[in-house]
Design goal:
Radius of gyration: 27 Å
CATH class of the domain at 193-316: Mainly Alpha
Order of helices and strands: HHHHHHHHHHHHHHHH
Helix content: over 70%
CATH architecture of the domain at 193-316: Alpha Horseshoe
Distance between the termini: 94 Å
Largest sheet: none
Number of helices: 16
Mean pLDDT: 88
Low-confidence stretches: 1-10, 312-316
Shape: elongated
């Protein structure tokens, strides 16, 4: 009787607390979406103090930290939610994604498998799992997991799945198929500009494998176009500038323009070692007779190709 009485008196208070907490969490989410990060962070701190053992509060904090680019704090809160007994797949997927970004493939595999055990149809968990398997060189299992996603009714026109298929076929050296998958991924998600770097890498690989010097040059030019497109969108990307410089240096023997890319990098980051060494190499090669002969050869080949493919001459 006493317990029942206590329970009847406690329920309204508990309901009020849950309502207050839910309203606070919603308000934090709203502030985060609006970009009012300072206000959201202050409210979140108060909520974490008030409900230190609440799974939903942990998840809200983790999402917030992930949104503002603090993955280590996000990882801490996601793991705390798991330790508190969360049985949703979200924190397991998120931990796997963060581990993957940190190049910790084994932990990524562990948490991705746990996420799939909770929610077998989770596309996000499968994507992390396949990515980690590819990084670990487990191509057969990666292929099977990717097939499982598609068999589960996932749309084959999904950009992320096409990108995973590109990574798998690329590692299997099925480069023509890899090109098709990557082109599909870029077409479906053009905002993912970093995939243009993959396109450049793929065309460089195709060029290296080609025995036809004219096709080889065409592949390298396609890589050049991909990097130019990337740098149009991300002109201060040190990674993009460095890759462009290396392409011009090692595949076009265009040491003048390669030097300009390295100089752009050093204007952004004066201590960037790859740019310093690249600039040194280019200056040495500009005075190298063999290097100049290579440049003349490729210029001649380029002119020959352009002439053979011109409208008046017809296509090869």
């Amino acid at each position: 009787m006493c317990l029942a009485t206590v329970g009847s008196h406690a329920s309204p208070n508990l309901n009020a607390q849950l309502s207050d907490r839910s309203s606070a969490l919603k308000h934090i989410d709203d502030l985060t979406r609006q970009g009012a990060f300072s206000g959201a962070r202050e409210e979140l701190k108060d909520l974490l103090k008030k409900y230190p053992q609440d799974i939903d509060v942990c998840l809200s904090a983790a999402r917030f930290y992930k949104t503002i680019g603090l993955p280590n704090l996000a990882l801490q809160e996601y793991k705390r939610a798991i330790a508190l007994g969360c049985r949703a797949s979200e924190p397991f997927v998120a931990v796997a994604q963060i581990c993957l970004a940190n190049l910790d493939d084994r932990q990524a595999l562990e948490y991705a498998r746990k996420a799939i055990a909770i929610e077998a149809t989770s596309k996000e968990a499968r994507i992390v799992l396949v990515s980690a398997l590819l990084n670990e060189g487990k191509l057969d299992e990666a292929g099977q997991q990717l097939a499982n996603v598609l068999a589960g009714g996932k749309d084959a026109s999904d950009a992320d799945l096409n990108y995973l298929a590109y990574k798998l076929t690329s590692k299997r050296r099925q480069l023509a198929l890899a090109k098709q998958c990557l082109d599909n991924a870029i077409r479906l998600k053009p905002a993912q500009t970093k995939w243009l770097l993959d396109r450049a890498d793929l065309y460089i690989s195709l060029g290296k494998e080609s025995r036809d010097p004219i096709q080889k040059m065409e592949d390298y030019r396609a890589a050049k176009r991909a990097l130019e497109r990337f740098l149009d969108l991300k002109p201060r990307s040190v990674e993009g500038l460095n890759r462009f410089g290396e392409l011009l240096e090692f595949y076009f023997y265009d040491f003048d323009n390669a030097s300009k890319q390295y100089e752009k990098i050093l204007a952004i980051d004066p201590d960037y070692v790859a740019a310093i060494t690249g600039l040194t190499r280019c200056k040495a090669n500009q005075n190298d007779i063999a290097g100049q002969m290579k440049l003349e050869f490729w210029n001649t080949l380029r002119q020959l190709k352009d002439g053979l493919l011109s409208p008046s001459r017809g296509r090869l």
